[in-house]
Fold:
Amino acid sequence: MTSECKEKFDTLKKILLKTGGCAVAFSGGVDSSLVLIVAHKALGDRALGVIATSSTYPQRECEQAIELVKEQNIPYVVIESEELEIDGFRENPTDRCYFCKKELFDKVLKEAHARGLKWVADGSNADDTGDYRPGMNAAREMGVLSPLMEAGLTKDDIRTILREVYELDIADKPSMACLASRFPYGSTITSDKLSQVDIIEAFLESEGFRIYRARHHGDILRLELGPEELKAVMNDDIRKKVTAFVKEQGFAYVTLDMEGYRTGSMNEVLEENRKKIQ
Structure:
């Protein structure tokens, strides 16, 4: 670990200790895992992991999150957060994440206050400022802390700390965004469509794929894959197997995005529209 990373890590610990107690909106991903683990080390039972289940949250992710808190002996609670019931969410507007996060943080805050905890923290990190993330506006409005961002910790820093300090395999876990991010803005989101995406991504994981996104475009599924996955899917047997499985889930066509996986690809159209307006 570099001296710069260590300094950021020390800052993170001070930020969390200063809260005196907090609840962490815990998804089971790399970022919120570090926040929750450090909070627990600093605050003991005054740190609470809040895991929210919903149709936009893959079941396997929920199971892994629960497994981690149990392994680390961290107090936790599982709550329900059904985004599809939020007015306007199904229509998938460009600020969809704002409404989702606002509802989530409201529920996490209630869990925190019920246990005498004043603060709620999320897993936003220093790299998240480089993409369009309306959910961060909801966090700021509701007074949610973003200790990783405040400490200046990047995704690479976070993985390094989890690997070198806590020796956890989760350090190498690929990023996993909400399933609603698989749909183009303006495309209606339904539970059936979310299920289609979830089933396909679970299949890809079972086939050994690590970096992937199944983007839902009506009767077309657009696959974004990491470099190694792109090489693997060029094998005729694997390509045919993936294609057949996707079509079994109701898609007429299966396409492979030649640019491969990149975070926030659904936001690219927003940038293009912005350029046209200028």
In short: Residues 94 and 270 are 8 Å apart (CA to CA).
